[in-house]
Amino acid sequence: MLAPNQTITKQTDSAPSPASKSSWRFGDLSAAELMPQLRRHLLNQDDAANWQLAWLNNDGRPVIGLLPKVSWSVYPTDQKPSKDSVNTYRVVKNCRDNCSTHSENTMTAYMSYLEWQNELIAYSKAYDTDNNSSNNVNPKSTKPCYHHGLIGFIGYDIAAYELSPVDRIELANQPCASLGHYDIYLTPAADTDTGWELKSIQTNSSSDEAVGNKSKDEFIVALTSYLDELDKKLSDKYLNQAQSKHTSHTIPVVLTARWSKRDYQQAFDRTQDYLQQGDCYQINLTQKWSGYLPYKNDATQPTSALIDYLPALHRNTKAPFAGYLSVDGASVDGASVDGTSVDGTSVEHFDIFNHNFELLSCSPELFFTFTKNKATNKHYILTKPIKGTMPRGADLEQDTRYKHQLTNSEKDRAENVMIVDLLRNDLGKYAKIGSVKVPQLFAIESFSNVHHMVSTITAELRADTHPLAVLFGSLPAGSITGTPKKRAVEIISELESTPRGAYCGTMGYMNFDGSGQWNVLIRTLQAGASLTDEFNKEKHINLWAGGGITVASDCNAEYQECLDKVGNLLAVLAKKV
After folding, report:
1. Is the peptide bond before 439 cis (omega within 30 degrees of 0)?
2. d(CA 437, CA 348)
3. How many angstroms separate the CA atoms of 420 and 427, rounded?
4. Res 192 pLDDT > 90
5. Cβ of 411: how many Cβ atoms within 10 Å?
């Protein structure tokens, strides 16, 4: 067994304070393989803690957030705005250290999208008090990485609803968005080629902060012992072999397409009508696959969770911008300001494995990378929209032929340049005049199941613009709506006739210094059960796929492209590969 290398160090964000730092091998499991083991282990050790595990692959620079200091989860409300009113959402704020004057850690407020955005910006600025956060960056990393800030997602529905509130775009009955301040997280060890180290960022409030009935330092000591135990368990050769086979015990899940080929044809034809009438130049039409994660409440087959499928899905896709997070359903529409449920019932009976919302992304697409020049304090942004897809070939000759077909496809080039122009316009609202550039057009990037056409756009942000404002203001991404964006989301709502939820939104991180990285939530699964029906023990799971439709598109080719994009994911879930 490999014993953990434990040291005491000092890490500061604004005020020096001792923090515990340890490193572990965890049986040399990959991050995706580790996540299910880590989640179940921590819940078994302390089920009262607000574990909200979040993993981002970050193009090979992973981070695992453990327990947020503060988290904001946003839910739809029944309130429908009038023509001139502002949309409001239920924002559930959970604080680890009683951040309100009330005795409970959970508060609920009704806020507009802009008010929530402004609260996050103000919160971020309060923690970006100096440049010491750079001390926490892995010295081996020359690319953007998480060191202290917010991790989470913003869904498509809420962004589309904000873009066209009068059109009454439907919101899925699940979290619209969730962001957490992760000051306790795991990151690859800086001094070894393998292994993980625990980071606990100290802030001005850390000295008197409580985590449950422990001080923060006491909690870190306890957390270190939890991780020691998991490391021992996974490092034992026999146990590690048994644990690594856990994914083989997942239950096969079969997802069924919501649309038949005929249904897709009808939606495609209506899309063409809008295009030919001049409503849009391009519309991103998507379709949905749905199924259930079976509920098994016995010792031999524990409750299914989407996270259990993460190792196999990531092993199959190796997606650069993959990610996972869960939002605890017990703190949903449940907790009002005084901590009681809205309807007067208790929320304590919820099974955390069954009633939480899970988001698992195998995304190959980058939305935004934000960087900060520490010498000049200037922020820069890079985006890489994907438009244009071909399947991988059965052999090298066919694969090369498909790749050349995509390279030379006038239709895909036209789609790609439309989205490049849309994103240039989006960034032009926030960029320094003359700084928006397109250094690369129509590059081909290859993934496990498809080739994609990818372009690159860069810009320097204006000094008075916060990166979070750029992120919020640019959603939903143009590559998954179409152009013009506002009309495209209205047509999408009509044709698809069911909310997308988080799909086609974004997942990522924003450090408090304004650096960060966000994906586009494609190749993404969502799972959750009804929070109002305690008898429903099965978690609903869905997956989507689609593509940009232009007047030059062929229905059969577009339909096949959908299957190419998610066929491997469907096969992994059904345990056919």
Report:
1. no
2. 53
3. 11
4. no
5. 15
DSSP one-letter string for 185-214: EEEE-TTSSS-EEEEE-B-TTGGG-EETTE
List, in sequence order, every beta strand (DSSP E) within 76-163.
Answer: 89-95, 106-111, 149-154
State the CB neighbour count (10 A cutoff) for residue 417. Answer: 15
- 175-196 burial, b at 16+ Cβ within 10 Å, e below that, comes to bbbbbbbbbbbbbbbeeeeebb
- At residue 214 the predicted structure's pLDDT band, cuts being 50, 70 and 90, is confident
CB atoms within 10 A of CB 442: 18
Task: Provide the b/e sequence for 509-531 (b: ≥16 CB within 10 Å).
Answer: bbbbbbbbbbbbbbbbbbbbbeb
Residue 258 CA: distances (Å) to CA of 267, 505, 563: 12, 21, 13
Q: Which residues contact 130 (CB under 8 A, 6 or more apart)?
A: 14
Name the residue type at position 574: A
Which of 551, 487, 570 is CA-nearest to residue 287?
570
370-375: Cβ within 8 A, 24+ apart: 370/144, 370/467, 370/470, 370/510, 370/514, 370/515, 370/516, 370/517, 371/144, 371/515, 372/513, 372/514, 372/515, 374/131, 374/134
Encode pLDDT of 309-328 as tens digits.
Answer: 999 999 999 999 999 999 97
Question: pLDDT digits over 34-67, tens only?
Answer: 999 999 999 999 888 888 999 999 999 999 999 9
| Rg value, the chain, Cα | 23
* Residues facing residue 142 across a β-bridge: none
User: SS3 sequence, 131-168?
Assistant: CHHHHHCCCCCCCCCCCCEEEEEECHHHHHHHHCHHHC
Distance of CA 323 to the CA centre of its chain: 6
Please tell me the predicted confidence (pLDDT) of residue 84.
60
The CA-CA-CA angle for residues 145, 151, 153, to 5°, reads 120
Q: Are strands 63-65 and 184-188 parallel, antiparallel or unpaired?
A: antiparallel
Separation of alpha carbons 197 and 25, rounded Å:
9
For 103-141, the pLDDT digits (tens) are: 458 899 999 999 999 999 999 999 986 444 444 444 444
Confidence band, pLDDT 50/70/90 cuts, at residue 388: confident
Measured distance CA(539)–CA(514) in Å, rounded: 36
Q: Do the beta carbons of residue 476 and residue 423 sit within 8 Å? A: no
Residue 479 DSSP SS3: helix
Task: Tell me the CA distances in angstroms from 391 to 98, 132, 228, 447, one per residue in order.
Answer: 51, 46, 44, 9
Report the DSSP pairing between strands 482-483 and 18-24: unpaired
User: Torsions phi, psi of 288, nearest 5?
Assistant: -120, 140
Active site residues: 365, 387
Question: Among candidates 396, 419, 564, 561, which has minimal Cα distance to 477?
Answer: 419
